[in-house]
Amino acid sequence: MKKILLGFVGLLFSSGAFAQKDSLAFDENNKYIYYKTVDQPGSIADSLYSRGLYFLTKAYPKKVLKLAKADKDGNALTGTGIFLVNKKGLMGNSEGGELSYTLKIEVKDGKYRYWLTDFVYQPYQRNRYGNVEHMHGKDVSLEKASEKLSKVDFNACLNQVLSNSKHVGDNLKAYMLKTSSLEKPAEVKKVKRVSTKEW
């Protein structure tokens, strides 16, 4: 019986350790960050860069995730995006607001890294027509959101940030494995010149 109990306790601790592998952390500026490094042996930096660029321009609609800056020399890409955050209500979840973030991708030969940071919570409110709209001037960084939101809403917000960040990361990994890239510009065919002076 003791062996079974010890095995069960060990299983709980190992599953808890596994769940903590994928979590939000704080960076050197005390901002929330979702950071991953991925090894991709045999890939060169140029192909990883073009795949990352393809991801930022084609994976999501522009209002959800878009390219903000491309630095070919530094092998770095920056995108900005948003996702919806639900809040707990009496009758279930409702749209609580949206969270904007910055996605940064850096590539090297054989590996790349990405991180989501600069999370800013933008709360919603219902207008007099019952439609949801932004509460202007109420934007708050995720680090200070615990002061503005209830504990339940803040914890739900953190969980949604983590799951959405993981989803974006999983999509990026899938795009980084694809061999397709941005369409090459079509070659301009040379047009034969005709002289109207001679005939």
TrEMBL record:
The keyword Cytoplasm does not apply. It comes from the Bacteria. It comes from Mucilaginibacter gossypii. Pfam families: DUF4468 (PF14730). Residues 34-122 form the DUF4468 domain. This is DUF4468 domain-containing protein. Residues 1-19 form the signal peptide. The keyword Signal applies.
